[in-house]
Design brief:
about 300 residues; alpha/beta; 7-stranded mixed beta sheet; 7 helices; globular; disordered N terminus
Length: about 300
């Protein structure tokens, strides 16, 4: 009898050890997202530093800033991008930074060439296959593909059983203007975004959930007779979400109205597996802690934290 008990004990222990790696992969974690932190005044920068310090104290797995550390009319001088890098390195944990329209498309307001500023931004912010921040994490950039070598800002990474990816869509109608150079830039970048979208959903085939980031509000409420610079991306996203059939979280900024909702529909029926999260935006300052529990039904649990103007 003693030997039988011993055999059962070790058999149970062996079973536990076999399933333990799976348990570790599905371990919950937290990431933080924020953006449109545009107040460049001394008080505004002080408040942003305070927010960053509070994020550092909670030690999230990583942080994603969806773009814009200045307003559209503020200068696009080289000094701005240097300040952006200094701000990024205030984060103790890895930081992924996405371009917003105030980072390049709106630079004409301060007498700079938007396309030249976009090229400069790419060289300064995305020279290596790693994140920003004091502690970096590896990122796979779309630019490793020869046909998309000009798009290092589109990246993917993975945390446990959840895949994360970013896409370069920006406000001001995604740079789709009547200017021929702007139109060509939009078309090239949109082609890259659509290809990246296909690849990300294919890569996520075995993931338990998918998180997508972009700066722009891609106009989920747009109607067919009001075309936008986001229509093809939004349509492709809808198709992928419908076939993916697992939780997809879509994070953006741009319109400065923090919200969490389910705006994506198919044949007038809400796609329940799709959730939109819009971050806080200036003049409001805040961050959203996203607690990820891969083995639960809804996966994502949200904790918005805002800083009052009087703070």
């Amino acid at each position: 009898m003693k030997n039988l008990i011993t055999v059962k004990y070790f058999a149970g222990l062996l079973t536990l050890l076999c399933v333990l790696p799976g348990i570790l992969l599905a371990a919950p974690f937290t990431f933080v997202t924020l953006g449109d932190t545009q107040d460049i005044s001394d008080k505004g920068q002080e408040r942003l530093s305070g927010l960053i310090e509070s994020i550092n104290q909670r030690q999230p797995a990583f942080v994603v800033h969806i773009g814009e550390l200045k307003g559209g009319g503020d200068s696009c001088h080289d000094d701005y991008y240097q300040r952006l890098l200094r701000t990024a390195n205030q984060f103790n944990n890895p930081l992924v930074y996405l371009p917003g329209d105030n980072d390049w498309t709106d630079c004409f307001h301060s007498q700079f060439d938007p396309l030249e500023r976009l090229n400069y931004l790419r060289k300064r912010l995305y020279p290596k296959p790693v994140s920003l921040g004091k502690t970096v994490m590896p990122l796979t950039r779309q630019s490793v593909q020869p046909e998309f070598r000009d798009f290092p800002e589109n990246v993917w990474w993975q945390q446990g059983d959840v895949l994360f990816a970013s896409f370069h869509n920006v406000g001001t109608n995604n740079n789709l203007y009547t200017d021929s150079k702007a139109i060509q830039e939009h078309l090239s970048r949109n082609t890259a975004n659509l290809a990246w979208l296909d690849q990300i959903f294919e890569r996520a085939s075995s993931a338990k959930a998918l998180v997508l980031f972009t700066h722009a509000n891609i106009k989920f409420d747009a109607v067919s007779w009001q075309p936008t610079g986001f229509d093809s991306f939004r349509a492709a996203l809808s198709d992928h979400v419908r076939t993916f059939a697992r939780p997809v979280l879509f994070v953006h900024g741009d319109t400065h109205k923090h919200k969490i909702d389910k705006p994506l529909k198919y044949k007038r029926k809400t796609m329940a597996n799709f959730t939109r999260l819009e971050v806080f935006g200036s003049p409001d300052l805040g961050a959203i802690y996203v607690h990820v529990h891969p083995d639960t039904e809804h996966v994502f649990h949200f904790e918005p934290v805002s800083i009052n103007l009087s703070d």
